[in-house]
């Protein structure tokens, strides 16, 4: 499954179709129970192929009403599947929303806190799975908006407005996860440094494994999601884009990544 995950992830990133072989792997396991990650991955195969089809909207020969209408219906159906996916996740995966000073220290707020709350998750892996789902919905949302530029749909204005709202909500969701990934780090630290503060609940302090997992993977995971958010920059407040760019700079400082 790891190889297939990488193939699907690369296809989503590059706007490439998923190969027939990957679809065959999916079909070969369709009668076995799937984990939440596998269910999302199966949907993302269709999201990747939707992106490829949507690229044809830029071609004058493919801007026919019928093509855009079919693509719009497919995109809306995929968005509904992505929303429904959240109902299939284990209860322990559900993020916890926190905001008070006892659970979110001031040092975290100073380092990077957007909005009025942040989220904590079972693990860095479940957090990223949630953010992958958000990014997939963003990709689908952009396809919906592109189709609506062509399709003269009676409900087009409502769908357009709803999609704009969804894009903002998805961006806010990803931004709310930043403290869980980075804590109050602003510069390079030891991977096992337990003086770093992370958001937590009153009854459950930060588990030991999170210090290492967040330090090892947090920045890498977030940078991938921030790149997706920049693609919807025109639909987000200027202040939020500035904050995202600031957090990308913060990650570079943490990991000492310098441009050459």
Tell me roughly what share of residues is in helical segments: 55-70%
Overall form: globular
- Secondary-structure element order, N to C: HHHHEHEHHHHH
Number of helical stretches of at least 4 residues: 10
Mean pLDDT across every amino acid position = 88
Strand order of the largest sheet: 1-2
**Helix-and-strand structural type:** mainly alpha
The strand count comes to 2
Relative strand content:
under 5%
- Largest sheet descriptor: 2 strands, antiparallel
The separation of the N and C termini measures 35 Å
**What low-confidence regions span 5 or more consecutive residues with pLDDT below 50?**
none
Assembly state: single chain
- Radius of gyration, whole Å: 19 Å
Secondary-structure blueprint of this entry?
Blueprint: H1 2-14, H2 20-28, H3 36-55, H4 65-85, E1 96-98, H5 106-112, E2 118-120, H6 124-148, H7 156-176, H8 178-182, H9 208-230, H10 238-254
Antiparallel strand pairs: 1-2
Helix pairs in contact: 1-3, 3-4, 3-6, 4-6, 6-7, 6-9, 9-10
